[in-house]
Amino acid sequence: MKAAALLLPFTMLLCSCVEDITADDSTTFDYLQRGETAFSAEKQIQLIDSQSSYDDIYYQLLGQSAVPQTLDFSQYQVLLVMAGSAHYTFEQKVATIQGLSDRVVLELYTEYAGPSCVVPAVQQQRWMLVLLPRVMKPLLITEQASVRRC
Question: What's the whole-model pTM score?
Fold first, then answer.
């Protein structure tokens, strides 16, 4: 039952404004940072559109101690993706970004451990911060999940 729930795609529609993303432009994003521990065990996908929000998440949610990067939020936005600690994840990445006439589609890919996989005893919460250009169109985020058989 849990494995079936993992395979259902997670879909979310977010709106933000400024420039455009061309079709199949996979160079329009960059990974700012990745980690395996956070102060929350919840699965979370959140679009960050201000420096103050980014700083708060960086320190309070992700528990980072270094000074966060200063970003130009008039041209960029940051996507926070947290896989959740309920299931161990082997991989988490942005699979594709595609600009369509009425929206931009960003597809995430997450590979979870299957029931027979050996996983660390310490609970982990994988996360990533992804830098994206701001877009004038709605941003549709989907997640394709798979379960690894070990």
Answer: 0.79
